[in-house]
Design brief:
Layout (H helix, E strand, L loop, with lengths): L8 H8 L32 H4 L2
Length: 54
């Protein structure tokens, strides 16, 4: 799996008080959903959010 890190990690670390020991990985969706698009029907097995974030 390829993870892309934040474009401005220094600024984000400063604003959100995130230590250097943590990797910042961000996904942001902007706009309105297109419910008819085939990608909106993709389903994957996922870990519960509680196991991935603190």
């Amino acid at each position: 799996m390829i993870l892309k890190t934040a474009v401005f990690p220094g600024e984000l670390r400063r604003i959100a008080n995130i230590p250097e020991s943590k990797r910042i990985v961000i996904g942001i969706a902007i706009g309105y959903p297109d419910w008819g698009h085939p990608l909106n029907n993709v389903r994957t097995d996922r870990e519960p959010v509680e196991k991935l974030v603190t």
